[in-house]
Amino acid sequence: MIEITLPDSSKVQYKKKEITPKEIAEDIGIGLAKAALAAKVDGEFVDLSYPIKGNSVVNIITFDDDEGKEVFRHSSAHVLAAAVQNLFPKVKFGIGPAVEDGFYYDFDKKEPFTPEDLKEIEKEMEKLVKKDTPFKREEASKTEAKKIFKDQPYKLELLEDIDRPTVYKLGDFKDLCSGPHLPSSGKIKAFKLTKTAGAYWKGDSDNKQLQRIYGISFPDKKQLNKYLKLQEEAEKRDHRKIGKRMNLFSINEEAPGMPFFHDKGNFIFEKLKEFMTREMRELDYEINRTPIILNKSLWLRSGHWDHYKENMYFTKIDNQDFAVKPMNCPGNLLIYKTTQHSYRELPLKAGEFGLVHRHESSGVLSG
Question: Structure pTM?
């Protein structure tokens, strides 16, 4: 006999040697059974087909849960990858996780994906959804996994750091993945591929740049349409477009990602600065100004040199290393050190309308 404890602390007993979360959801009610996407068994995130062989605490996960959205979108990424494999058999696969606002998958493909390609991929995804293809989890040894992914270099690289690999199948598509996933592709009733972007493998600019396809998915078309409507409204309010249209600022190739404030834009900037200055003075803030370029010794003490160096700009002055400041704090701490202080002065509050520069990867500013 197995005793299952539900989220409301109620207990249900089953005269079985094992039971699955799917069966538990069906026992609770048809509504939950339909909405169920995955489960948590004693805190472990698992598929609905996971065999429970002893007394356990079970929570059925639906799209209303954050974990439910995660598994839904992660499974959507696998459907995307399966569609790409069907249309472009020579493609190499990176990774395809769920993200806060949807999902993506990274591909190594010689030619760039075109808008027409995305339309064809969506059609292929629709076919996979209509087939209601099941997601199947398989345990594999490292040797077996290497055979499965022998033509997929990125998967082989990931395998080096995995002791007990698991593989998920969706039709002919296989992916190195820990899961969990939806019971089948038919759960994904509404989806949209939203954009493409470049992405370095493992986020390292020394690695090859892959092609990333982003998408969003929902259990029904009503939710998708609501999301697309909100995105459409947000597009109208894009500050980059408004700024250009109102002649407030511009972005030029000579300084990528750095705004050139025009006269009208600078007027607004100065007025905002005046407002902030008044507010800060009323709150007893000091307002300081520190140099843009500071010696390497400061960045070593602050930890930036060891932990943030790849995001900084450097120069040499009189054979000494200097860096353009990525943050204002270290310079303000030098001001603090110029005089002795007592605990009676606390709290000390300081701010700076500083100019900082960080070496961000291409595409970061647009998300």
Answer: 0.76
Contact (CB, 8 A) for 243 and 237: no
Coil, helix or strand at residue 352: strand
The single-letter DSSP state of residue 235 is H
96-119: b (≥16 Cβ within 10 Å) or e: bebeeebbbbbbbeeeebeeebbe
pLDDT (tens digit per residue) in 322-366: 999 999 999 999 999 999 999 999 999 999 999 999 887 665 665
Tell me the pLDDT tens digit for each residue of 272-327: 999 999 999 999 999 999 999 999 999 999 999 999 988 899 999 999 999 999 99
Contact of 27 with 12, CB cutoff 8 Å: yes
Total of domains in the chain: 4
The answer to whether 6 and 29 are in contact (CB under 8 A) is no
**Residue numbers of the domain that contains 54:** 2-62
Angle between the N-to-C axes of helices 66-87 and 115-130, in degrees from 0 to 180, rounded to the nearest 10: 110
Q: Is residue 89 part of a domain?
A: yes
Q: CA 347 from chain center: how many Å?
A: 37
Does residue 23 contact residue 56 with C-beta atoms inside 8 Å? Answer: no
- Which of helix, strand or coil describes residue 242? helix
